[in-house]
Write a structure and sequence with these properties.
homodimer, Quinone Oxidoreductase, Chain A, domain 1, Rossmann fold, seven-stranded mixed beta sheet, 9 helices, globular
C-alpha cells in the first residue's frame, strides 16, 4: 500500500433500506495504465448526492444501476496528470462522472474543462455544476416564478435547495424552506435570506405553513416528498407550480410508504406538477452557468459546502447525508 | 299539487360518504313569478355529474358549496316560457346553471342560446356542453397527444371519458379505457373503437395494463384516481402527460384513502401532471364546439346517453351514477 495506489469505493451489496457501511467495499488497486486517446485524472473532489441511492438499486430508472462489484457512480473534478489525446493537456482541470475513486481514466467524452481562476474548482460539482443547474432549471423553467409568489423549498439547506431558494429570492418571491435541524433552519434564514424556515422534525408542518404562508403557496420545489409534500399540496393556490426534483424521504424505504391520495388538489387549484431531470436542459447549461456566476459575483447567491477529507470516508459520509447529518453541499476532498 | 308546480330537489343534509336519498328533499312550490329584466325557463333536461358530489360538502373548493336547504346545483337546458328582457324571447332554448328543478328564473347572465335545428337540445349539457368541452381541452391542451401515443382514460364510458378517448382516437393514438363493468368495457371497445378496455373491478389492473400497453403509457386522462391511477403512474413513459380531470373514487370517502407516495415516477419520467377546470378555457369554447360538432357530423364521435325520466328521480339516479350504475352521460328528462 502506498500513496500511488488508486483507492476505489465499490458497491458491495444492494442495500435494503438505508445503506450501511457493509454495502460498500473500499479497495486499493494500481493506478490504471493510460492508452492512446485517453487521459488520466487525479481526482481532487467527489460530489455526494441523494440520487446515488437510486443507482444502488436494481430497478429501471432514468440511468443505469451500478452493478455489484463496480465503482460507485458520481460526479468529480480533478487534474489531468497524463494525456494521450490532443484535446486535453496535462495540468488541466476537468469535471466528469469519474466515480468514487482517486484516479480515473477517460477518453474525454462528457468532460468539461474548468478554469481554476474563476473560483474554487469544486464549485464545478456544486453551485456551478449539477446541483446548481438543477436548481436553476427546476425553479426558473419548471416553476416559472413571478415576483411576489410564495415559494416553498423542501430540503432547503441542501445542495439544490439552497440554490433554488436563493434564485426564488432573486426573482422577488417570498421563500419558505423546510429542513431537519434548527441549525439548518437558522442557516437558510440568517445566512441565505429565506423569509422563514420550518423544522419538519420538531414542528407541526401544517401549522407552521399556515403561519409562514398566509396567502397560500404558489410554487413548491420538492426535494423530499412524503408528509411534508402532503402538507404543502393541501395549501396550493390556483395556478400553482410544483417541481418534483427529488423524493429523498422515499429512497431508503423497504416498502412504499402510504400517504393520502390528494391529486384532486391539483384539479381544484388548476395546478401543475412536473418531474424533471437536469439533463433535459443541457443545451442551455451555458446560459445557466453565466447567470449563476454573475449572481455569485454580485454576492446574491451564497453556497455552503460540507467537506469531508478522504475518499475512504465517502461511504460513511454518504450514509450521514441520507440521514440529514450534512449542512449544505456534501463534498469529499479526495486529494 | 298540480302539473303547474315547480318541483325542486333541495340539499337536505350534508352526506357522510355516499349520498343517500335522505340527503335530498323533493318539494313542490309555486312556479316563480317573473320580474322586469328576467326570464322564466321550463327545464327540459338536467345534467347529473360527479362534480356535484363536491358541492354537497362544506369545504372550500373552486366553486361555492350548496347550502343545506338550497336547490342542488346543476347544468340544465330548457325552453323560455316567458321573457321580460329584450335579449331573450319566449320559445327560445337556453342552457344554463338552472339547478335541480323544473322551472327556473334567470336574468340571462351566463345563459347560452341553443339552436334546436343542430341536434338534440340535451347535447348542450353533454357532448356539446361541459362534459364535451372538458374532454376536449383536457385531452388536447393538457395532454397534447401525438399520433401513435398510448393513451389511458379512466371512467372511459362516462360523460367525459367517452369523448376524451374518442378524441385521442381521432388524433391517431392507441387508446385504452378503464371501466367498472364488462358491459362498459364492451361498449368502449365495440361501439366507440377503443383499442382495449379493462374492467378495474374484476381484472388485475397492473397485469391488464401490461398487456394493453406494451410500450408504456404516454398520456393518462384521469377521472377516477385511487388504485387505478397508482397502476398507471407506475407505467408512464418519459415525457408523459397526466390530466387530473376528476377523482371520483375519492369523492365519497369519509376518511382520505391512503396510497403509495409515488411522485418520483414523475421525476424519473420527466412527466407532467396537471389538474384543470374547463372554465379556464371559456374563451375557446366556440373553437371546441365547432370541432366537436364537425366530428359528430362526420360520425367520428359517438355519444351515449343514460336517460331517466322525471326530476323526482334525480337523487336516486345521482346516487346510482356515483356507484357506476349508469352507462354514458347521465341525464334527467324533466319534461
Amino acid at each position: 500500500m502506498n500513496s500511488e495506489s488508486n483507492i476505489k469505493v465499490l458497491l458491495a451489496a444492494r442495500p435494503k433500506g438505508y445503506p450501511r457501511n457493509e454495502d460498500f467495499l473500499v479497495i486499493e488497486s494500481e493506478i490504471p495504465k493510460i492508452k492512446e486517446g485517453e487521459l488520466l485524472v487525479k481526482i481532487d473532489w467527489l460530489s455526494l448526492d441523494p440520487y446515488m441511492r437510486g443507482r444502488m438499486n436494481d430497478v429501471k430508472s432514468y440511468a443505469p444501476s451500478v452493478e455489484v462489484g463496480d465503482v460507485m457512480v458520481g460526479g468529480a473534478v480533478g487534474t489531468i496528470i497524463e494525456s494521450r489525446t490532443s484535446l486535453f493537456s496535462k495540468g488541466e482541470i476537468v469535471e466528469g462522472s469519474f466515480g468514487w475513486q482517486s484516479y480515473a481514466l477517460s477518453n474525454g467524452v462528457g468532460l468539461r474543462k474548468i478554469n481554476p481562476d474563476l473560483g474554487p474548482i469544486q464549485s464545478s460539482i456544486g453551485v456551478l455544476g449539477m446541483p446548481g443547474l438543477t436548481a436553476y432549471f427546476g425553479l426558473l423553467d419548471v416553476c416559472q416564478p413571478i415576483a411576489g409568489d410564495t415559494v416553498v423549498v423542501s430540503a432547503a439547506s441542501g445542495a439544490v435547495g439552497q440554490i433554488a431558494g436563493q434564485i426564488a429570492k432573486i426573482m422577488g418571491c417570498r421563500v419558505i424552506g423546510t429542513a431537519g435541524t434548527n441549525e439548518k433552519v437558522q442557516f437558510i434564514v440568517d445566512e441565505l435570506g429565506f423569509d422563514a424556515g420550518i423544522n419538519y422534525k420538531t414542528e407541526n408542518v401544517g401549522t407552521s405553513l399556515n403561519s409562514a404562508c398566509p396567502d397560500g403557496i404558489d410554487i413548491y420545489f420538492d426535494n423530499v416528498g412524503g408528509f411534508v409534500t402532503d402538507e404543502v399540496i393541501k395549501r396550493i393556490n390556483t395556478g400553482a407550480r410544483i417541481a418534483i426534483c427529488g423524493q429523498v424521504s422515499q429512497y431508503n424505504l423497504e416498502e412504499p410508504e402510504l400517504g393520502p391520495r390528494n391529486l384532486f388538489h391539483l384539479t381544484k387549484s388548476q395546478a401543475k406538477m412536473e418531474g424533471f431531470l437536469v439533463f433535459a436542459y443541457e443545451a442551455r447549461y451555458d446560459e445557466a452557468l453565466h447567470r449563476l456566476s454573475k449572481w455569485i459575483n454580485q454576492d446574491k447567491l451564497k453556497y455552503k459546502e460540507d467537506i469531508v477529507e478522504g475518499i475512504r470516508n465517502a461511504p460513511q459520509t454518504f450514509i450521514g447525508m441520507l440521514n440529514g447529518e450534512n449542512l449544505g453541499k456534501t463534498l469529499i476532498k479526495v486529494s
